[in-house]
Amino acid sequence: MKSTTRVFGLAPLLLLIAGLAHADKYTDTIGLFRNAGESASFFHRSYGYAVFPTVGEGGLGVGGALGKGHVYVHGRLVGESTMAQLSVGFQAGGKAYSQIIFFEDKRALDEFKSGTFEFGAGASAVAITAGAQVNAGTDGVSAGASGEEYHARDTGVYEKGMAVFTIAKGGLMYAAAIAGQKFSYKPRGA
Fold this sequence. Notes:
Elements lengths: L1 H33 L4 H7 L2 E26 L2 E28 L2 H8 L4 E2 L6 E3 L12 E3 L18 E26 L3
Parallel strand pairs: 4-6
Antiparallel strand pairs: 1-2, 2-6, 3-6, 5-6
């Protein structure tokens, strides 16, 4: 009976530690983008951003990707988002990457939060790497594991109020496929 009481007494501490570990993956991913080339400047000039610490993608003929993220306005957490992608075409392999979407203004964020937002097949992202050539656009993907993410160089501009950056985490995938990313949004506390 006494050991059961100890276990239940430790439960809140374990939940707190698990919560902090979960929060760290967002903090760590944001830190990578803050220190990677030109994406750092977007933190100062954007209205907000959505960060996805890990997006897993795989396919063989038909493929898909899935990632869960947080949405921030001026550095404050305001909601959660899920990204899903379905692709059809020549593709083989699997990979993981981190993704961040910067919103230039409130209008762009509101469009994202509408619950029906999606990037079309022609959308592309700037891949931040330091040794591997990676193109993470949805019009064809070839990716390898990224080297050191810090001090990597990239270029990026807002397109229709949004700028997208990715950092390869690992895996190898070739794709010549048509794909689009669809996002859902849930406000914090809802």
